[in-house]
């Protein structure tokens, strides 16, 4: 009975808030000791687990780095494949636009080591049916002509080569001219009659004259015209449609047979 | 034997690198001549077996890739070989001086020969001033830029394949 009365009294005092200072005073040392134990336990736990965590993190980091590296390689590969697919798609468009020709795609694997001449080397040769004199084009337009062939490679003379001369026609005036290359890779129109109407922006296409190239392949666009009253011909600078520095894949027109007109020229050449 | 076999492989690699990569590194219209740099460094190395075969092989390899005839390269690389063998061990502590001299003279001669061949035998309309300013001078500069790393690599290769013979004290 007495105990019950004491308990009830203490409860009443506690609920009334009269025991709070006493409780605080008695729990403070206990809590301090508990906190000290907790901190010590946490320290020991950290000490025991930390090396394991660092090792795990390092392993994870290595794994993630390897994964990032693999994904980056994959991205580069996919980007390359995408570029190649775009290139092939453009070449396919070109081939569809000129259905009269048969094409053989080839990859550019090198360039002439000598800076005086402009040639490229492609990875298709006589084993693939390529022959000297076959024209080479890209998705944009005319690239050049095959100059030498071995079983698994061929050398292509670019139209920018200083020794190159292509018979072309300027549209819309239907003016025939000769397109020559240069040391700098710039193209120039020569042998244009003074009365011919050619203007910047006119398109330059192969004419098919001379029998070296098929007709109507886009070559470039006139960027400026030099016309001197006392000159025999007017000249023009041409911007090629093909970026010769970035050539990767080209098409060889395999069903074109070049015509050798040299025997026809000989009598004139030997004439006094 | 080791030097000959490795030399053949190295020359083939150099020719491939020249065509696939170096020929696309332009300064104006000029490019470096990796083969010439390699040959000059090889012929100037004091322990490397100096033989005409290297110049002939190099000319044949580059000539195969180029539209220009192989004998044109043989003339150029032959001149490099002769000059290098003349200067070999003659310039005391002047390995780099000899190397730069051979590279400059060899490259200049090769370009002049090429120009003369195209201009006078094939009648290609090339202007000398244009060729000199746009091709020859930039090529010489690029050759000098590539010279030191190529020299170091060839030096290492020569030391590896043709090590110096130890002098025996009587």
How many domain modules of chain A? Answer: 3
Widest sheet of chain A: strand order?
Answer: 1-2-5-4-3-12
Report low-confidence residues of chain B grouped into runs of 5 or more: none
Report the CATH architecture of the largest domain in chain A.
Beta Barrel
How would you describe the oligomerization state of the chains in this entry? heterodimer
* Percent range of helical residues of chain B: over 70%
CATH superfamily of the largest domain in chain A: Rod shape-determining protein MreC, domain 2
Would you state the CATH class of the largest domain in chain A? Mainly Beta
Total strands of chain B: the figure is 0
Distance between the termini of chain A: 151 Å
What is the rounded distance between the termini of chain B?
A: 29 Å
Average pLDDT level of chain B: 87
Q: What are the secondary-structure elements of chain A, in order, as H or E? A: HHEEEEEEEEEEEEH
What Rg of chain A do the Cα atoms give?
Answer: 41 Å
Largest interface: A-B, 22 and 33 residues
């Amino acid at each position: 009975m007495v105990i019950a009365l004491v308990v009830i009294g203490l409860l009443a005092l506690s609920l009334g808030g009269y025991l709070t200072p006493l409780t605080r005073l008695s729990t403070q040392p206990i809590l301090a000791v508990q906190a000290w134990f907790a901190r010590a336990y946490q320290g020991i736990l950290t000490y025991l687990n930390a090396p394991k965590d660092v090792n795990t993190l390092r392993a994870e980091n290595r794994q993630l780095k390897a994964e990032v590296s693999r994904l980056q390689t994959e991205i580069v590969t996919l980007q390359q494949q995408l570029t190649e697919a775009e290139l092939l798609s453009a070449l396919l468009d070109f081939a569809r636009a000129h259905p009269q020709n048969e094409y053989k795609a080839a990859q550019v694997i090198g360039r002439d080591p000598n800076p005086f001449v402009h040639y490229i080397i492609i990875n298709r040769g006589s084993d693939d049916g390529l022959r000297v004199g076959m024209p080479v084009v890209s998705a944009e337009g005319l690239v050049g002509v095959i100059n030498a062939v071995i079983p698994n490679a061929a050398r292509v003379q670019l139209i920018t080569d200083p020794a190159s001369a292509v018979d072309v026609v300027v549209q819309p005036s239907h003016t025939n001219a000769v397109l020559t290359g240069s040391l700098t890779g710039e193209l120039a129109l020569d042998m244009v009659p003074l009365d011919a109407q050619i203007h910047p922006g006119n398109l330059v296409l192969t004419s098919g004259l001379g029998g070296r190239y098929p007709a109507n392949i886009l070559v470039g666009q006139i960027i400026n015209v030099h016309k001197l009253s006392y000159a025999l011909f007017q000249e023009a600078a041409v911007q090629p449609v093909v970026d010769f520095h970035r050539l990767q894949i080209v098409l060889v027109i395999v069903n074109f047979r070049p015509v050798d007109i040299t025997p026809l020229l000989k009598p004139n050449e030997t004439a006094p | 034997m080791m030097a000959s076999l490795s030399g053949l492989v190295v020359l083939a690699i150099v020719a491939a690198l020249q065509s696939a990569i170096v020929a696309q590194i332009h300064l104006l219209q000029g490019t470096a001549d990796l083969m010439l740099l390699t040959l000059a460094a090889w012929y100037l190395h004091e322990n490397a077996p100096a033989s005409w075969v290297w110049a002939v092989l190099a000319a044949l390899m580059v000539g195969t890739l180029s539209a220009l005839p192989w004998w044109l390269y043989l003339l150029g690389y032959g001149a490099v070989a002769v000059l290098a063998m003349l200067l070999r061990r003659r310039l005391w502590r002047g390995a780099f001086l000899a190397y730069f001299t051979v590279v400059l003279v060899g490259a200049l001669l090769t370009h002049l020969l090429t120009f003369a061949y195209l201009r006078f035998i094939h009648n290609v309309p090339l202007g000398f001033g244009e060729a000199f300013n746009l091709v020859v001078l930039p090529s010489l500069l690029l050759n000098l830029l590539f010279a030191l790393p190529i020299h170091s690599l060839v030096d290492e290769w020569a030391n590896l394949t043709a090590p110096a013979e130890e002098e025996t004290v009587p």
